Amino acid sequence: MDFISDIFSNRILMSAFWGWFVAQVLKTIIYVIVNKNFNPERLMGDGGMPSSHSATVMALVTSTFLTYGAGSFEFAISGVLALIVMHDAMGVRRQAGKQAVVINNMMDWFKELDQDIPVEQKLKEFVGHTPLQVLFGAILGIVVGAIVISL
User: Sorting pLDDT into bands at 50, 70 and 90, what band is 113?
Assistant: First the structure.
């Protein structure tokens, strides 16, 4: 039972969790407002505004900074991790999402031409983020991290 209580009393870990959770809820609400329909996949899915990846790692960085300071190895590790995650969200994963759109459109085109090709399940198109989505996720993570550590 100490393991479970240790996890829930770890404010740095809880900051990261709450950064992710708040971003996913906001992402779902924004999706409903923009698209006028509820998609339950948005609660757990990738992509969209704000970036939950950025919110998670920036809540981690912020809470680590506030707990251990800028000179700590914990802050260094969390900071490098955050840079990698946010760069990946805007780079490789964003390009993968763009490619998924093109491939899905090609599959639809082949279906319209009545070509006999195996059509698997459509590829996920919401996998990456725009720089603005990453920025807002990062800001959200900083705020959440600061709030959780201050409680």
Answer: low
State the Cα–Cα distance between residues 124 and 96, nearest whole angstrom: 9
| DSSP secondary structure of 39-103 | -GGGGT-SSSSS-HHHHHHHHHHHHHHHHH-TTSHHHHHHHHHHHHHHHHHHTHHHHHHHHHHHH
What pLDDT sits at residue 140?
A: 95
How is the chain split into domains, by residue range? Answer: 3-150
Work out the end-to-end distance of the chain between its first and last CA atoms, rounded to an integer number of angstroms. Answer: 23
DSSP state of 114: T
Q: How far apart are CA 57 and CA 20, in angstroms?
A: 9
Q: How far apart, in whole angstroms, are the C-alpha atoms of residue 1 and residue 4?
A: 5
